[in-house]
Amino acid sequence: MINVFIDEPRVPLIFAPTPLHPAENLSKELGIDLWFKRDDLTGPGAFGGNKMRKLEFLMGEAKAKNLDYVFTYGASQSNHAMQTAAACARSGLKCVLYLVALVPPDTKALRGNMLLDTLFGAEIHVVNLEPGETEDDGFEKCYVLAAEHIKKLEAEGHGCLNVPVGGASMAGSLGFASGYLELRDQLLLLERPPFDYIYHSTGSAGTMAGLLAGRAMAGGSEAIRSVCASEKGGEYEPKVVKMANEVLVHLCQEARVQEKDFTVWREYVGPGYEIPYPESTAALKLVARREGITLDPVYSAKAFAGLLDHVKTGKIKAGEKVLFWCTGGAASLFAEPEIVGDFAD
Ligand SMILES: Cc1ncc(COP(=O)(O)O)c(C=O)c1O
């Protein structure tokens, strides 16, 4: 029934459709009609997340091209890196991770996603930041090292898929175009009208581009409100439009996405990526204590802090229908204390 016409090489990884359910306690408390789409439960293991949708197509690409290695990048507590490691394990591919130590990990007592990366058998390279180096410098170092590594492997006869940070590519975004269509089909089955808003956390923008492409294909009406987890400059919106339209062109669709079709909310990043702040920690606690759902401190808690602020400031009105697309990341609740924040009270 679902997604039949996205006919691309794909490795089945996720348990779809992911649950779509009302959040009754929070709805009552906030005076809105709030639902959750549970991409934290994509599988294949206990720690799923949004990247698995992208990885179905990325693993499909690697298999179709007969490659045997997958390289990717992220912070040392990257959810994307961990999910890539799990996807590779399931797909019989070797996973190589180049990770920037924004918060230096204790390699003798691994935590959170890095512990899982190791468990899934990934080859991990941690790149430290020297004094004065920025996050971008760290990623540049990763790309140089990985390019040498790939060259060496290819000279030995191996084939490598080089997956960008966050899986943000046309192939990756196909996964979320497909996710949007999955949501539409769930609403049809439930005989429910579309939501007024879809809220979700955005980082590399692949999720957002895919949702926008899916909405354009289906002629959907929801406002997609994407809440940034890291500071993004003016290059962000054109990147989203480009990726969304690449998906639409690839799928031979006539519809196109424009910058005026979406809003990116940058004011809920707080002091920076992987740094919690009082409102994001409060959002994490509220969702856990009213609904028993574990958001993550780096991405979804900040997106939910944005949603709460929008209720408070009237950007969401009483009774409106709101979907929170829960993108996973709960493994980082077990990361370094600076990343987790202090929610014990
Ligand atoms: C839990 C979680 N939510 C949201 C995102 C953002 O997704 P995207 O990179 O597709 O924008 C990420 C990215 O790593 C994530 O790990």
Spell out the key features of this protein.
345 residues; alpha/beta; Rossmann fold; 2 domains; six-stranded mixed sheet; binds pyridoxal-5'-phosphate
Structure description:
Helix content is 41%, strand content 16%. The chain is of the alpha/beta class and 345 residues long. The chain has 2 domains: 20-49 and 168-340, Rossmann fold, CATH 3.40.50.1100; 51-167, 3-Layer(aba) Sandwich (Rossmann fold), CATH 3.40.50. The mean pLDDT is 95.
Nutshell version of this structure?
The chain has 11 helices and 10 strands. The protein has helices spanning 24-30, 51-64, 79-91, 112-119, 135-155, 170-190, 206-218, 236-250, 278-291, 300-312, 337-340, and strands at 20-22, 33-38, 69-75, 94-101, 123-128, 160-162, 197-202, 223-228, 263-265, 321-326.
Protein topology:
Layout (H helix, E strand, L loop, with lengths): L19 E3 L1 H7 L2 E6 L12 H14 L4 E7 L3 H13 L2 E8 L10 H8 L3 E6 L6 H21 L4 E3 L7 H21 L6 E6 L3 H13 L4 E6 L7 H15 L12 E3 L12 H14 L8 H13 L8 E6 L10 H4 L5
Parallel strand pairs: 2-10, 3-4, 3-6, 4-5, 7-8, 7-10, 8-9
Antiparallel strand pairs: 1-2
Helix pairs in contact: 2-3, 2-6, 3-4, 6-7, 6-8, 7-8, 9-10
The structure holds pyridoxal-5'-phosphate.
**Bound molecule types:** pyridoxal-5'-phosphate
Q: Supply the number of helical segments.
A: 11
> Helicity, in percent?
40-55%
> SSE order, as H and E?
EHEHEHEHEHEHEHEHEHHEH
Strands, total number: 10
Low-confidence stretches: none
CATH class of the largest domain: Alpha Beta
CATH fold call of the largest domain: Rossmann fold
CA radius of gyration: 19 Å
The order of strands across the largest sheet is: 1-2-10-7-8-9
Shape: globular
The biggest sheet amounts to:
6 strands, mixed
Mean pLDDT: 95
